[in-house]
Write a sequence for this structure.
């Protein structure tokens, strides 16, 4: 299907574009009352993510209501461990929780490399429905968690300030850690390729807990597995978003991905010099700027765009939009990007 708005894909390819494309991480979510209405019609987040017609509906909402240049499929990175045999719950106001975790080799034997066409069929069906509903208006982004971030949840059992259990395994049982990371990686390759087959125009990998590792562990337990995924996915562009991984930016620049997402603490000028035109960049406005007065929001957005001027750039936040953000502030951010010259 011919896309009516292909700005995002063109900028990734290095083609000349009329303006900077813009979308937001977590744009389909609690900032929109229309999303909350759909969410309230079911038991909670997980049921919503596993109901393809509803997941497709909330995927499309930001395109209709905010005017973004891309949709991202409504799902969760933790569908991967569940598909591998480690189910989770989403606890209101606390986040994800795994009743069982991976502690030793016998726990690993309970897992499998998932088959996305059976174990994650609901995500693929949501992608097909969203593609139909979008009708070529904008590209659809598929995604998955990077192996280290998925590993962190599978070993820790929940979100954490330290992920001390997950990090302890890297020191105490690195062989087991690599075995689990390899299973996650193989599942993720199958999963994102299935998303592409279902209709995703590009893929983003979220390494949400990149910044918690020392550089030597990040190289050993994250970079090498992301590279396997990047090398395997040749059908569509791949974006890597590694939050807090400023210490590994040289290695990330060497990955065979097309786009690098930058968080709001990254130094744009330095990274642009290091990249030397090799990559497209995505980001990196501080999400908290969307709480600022309108004039400050506009000024900070324009400053970000000026810093990226002359490089291939997709405007976005440096992390997901916060759930209590006023949608009008989001619209102003998007309008500011679209009006920038």
């Amino acid at each position: 299907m011919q896309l009516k708005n292909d700005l995002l894909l063109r900028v990734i390819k290095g083609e000349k574009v009329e303006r900077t494309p813009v979308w937001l991480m977590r744009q389909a979510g609690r900032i929109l009352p229309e999303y909350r209405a759909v969410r309230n019609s079911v038991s909670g987040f997980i049921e919503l993510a596993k109901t393809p017609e509803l997941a497709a509906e909330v995927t499309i909402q930001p395109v209709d209501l905010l005017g973004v240049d891309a949709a991202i499929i409504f799902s969760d990175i933790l569908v991967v461990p569940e598909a591998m045999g480690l189910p989770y719950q989403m606890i209101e106001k606390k986040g994800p929780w795994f009743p069982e975790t991976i502690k030793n080799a016998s726990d690993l034997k309970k897992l499998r490399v998932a088959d996305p066409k059976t174990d994650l069929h609901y995500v693929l069906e949501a992608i097909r429905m969203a593609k139909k509903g979008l009708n070529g208006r904008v590209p659809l982004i598929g995604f998955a968690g990077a192996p280290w971030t998925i590993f962190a949840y599978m070993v820790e059992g929940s979100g954490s300030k330290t992920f001390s259990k997950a990090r302890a395994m890297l020191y105490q049982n690195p062989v087991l850690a690599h075995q689990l990371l390899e299973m996650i990686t193989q599942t993720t390759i199958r999963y994102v390729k299935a998303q592409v087959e279902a209709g995703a125009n590009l893929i983003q990998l979220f390494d949400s807990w990149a910044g918690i590792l020392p550089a030597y562990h990040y190289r050993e337990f994250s970079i090498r597995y992301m590279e396997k995924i990047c090398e395997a996915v040749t059908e569509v562009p791949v974006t890597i978003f590694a939050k807090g991984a400023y210490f590994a930016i040289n290695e990330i620049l060497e990955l065979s991905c097309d786009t690098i997402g930058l968080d709001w603490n990254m130094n744009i000028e330095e990274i642009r010099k290091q990249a030397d035109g090799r990559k497209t960049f995505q980001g990196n406005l501080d999400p908290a700027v969307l709480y600022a007065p309108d004039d400050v929001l506009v000024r900070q957005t324009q400053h970000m765009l000026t810093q990226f001027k002359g490089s291939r750039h997709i405007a976005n936040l440096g992390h997901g939009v916060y759930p209590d953000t006023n949608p009008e502030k989001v619209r102003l951010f998007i309008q500011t990007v679209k009006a920038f010259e």
